[in-house]
Design brief:
Structural class: alpha+beta
Shape: globular
Number of helices: 7
Strand content: 25-35%
Number of strands: 6
């Protein structure tokens, strides 16, 4: 694996940035019924173009940041009387791009619960590098398949044979658009047991 230039400096700067936890935007939550904190827009922005897999120390910094952010947001959500979806999503591939804390109310609850489809009990458990982090044991973790949706409009001559040799399904939306859906790694969703 090629060494990342300035890696130690970037890790120090990332650790510094991870100490600054974002507040939940109550105004955004009231208006749009969701809020989120993404790693690629936050402390891990320096690694957003890095190739998979990121070094373990970087992934642990990001996961710790998300765990602390969720704990902080749960305290800020405590006064709400309506149901709330609050979770951490940790992805094995595209870690920086997909991993985030999400909070939703009203119609967003169902949308977030169905984002990754049904849980896959036979899928891999949350990796030990994340399970050992403070606060991870307080969440209920489920494993989901991460999927790539490839639009048929991007393939005017049909699906390439290399894609059809992989495990896949073809999905057609109600509007008639077809997609080739290819499994692409795993996502672990961590939710606090008391959150609806």
């Amino acid at each position: 694996m090629k060494k990342i230039r300035g890696f130690n400096r970037n890790v120090r700067l990332t650790a510094r940035d991870c100490a600054l936890l974002p507040d939940l935007s109550a105004a955004h939550l009231r208006q749009f019924h969701y809020d989120y904190a993404k790693l690629r827009l936050g402390p891990l922005h320096r690694f957003r173009h890095a190739r998979h897999p990121l070094p373990q120390v970087v992934r642990q910094l990001g996961a710790t940041y998300l765990l602390k952010t969720l704990q902080r947001w749960q305290q800020q959500l405590a006064p709400l009387t309506e149901p709330v979806y609050a979770a951490i999503w940790l992805a094995d591939t595209d870690f920086v791009y997909l991993s985030q804390v999400v909070v939703g109310t009203q119609g967003r609850i169902e949308w977030y619960e169905n984002t990754f489809g049904d849980a896959v009990p036979a899928g891999p458990l949350l990796p030990p590098e994340y399970r050992a982090l403070p606060g991870a044991d307080q969440l209920t973790w489920t494993t989901h398949r991460q999927q790539k949706w490839l639009d048929a409009d991007n393939f005017p001559h049909g699906w390439p044979a290399r894609l059809l040799r992989q495990e896949h399904t073809v999905r057609t939306l109600e509007v008639g658009r077809s997609f080739l859906v290819i499994p692409h790694g795993w996502v672990w969703v961590g939710r606090a047991p008391h959150v609806t």
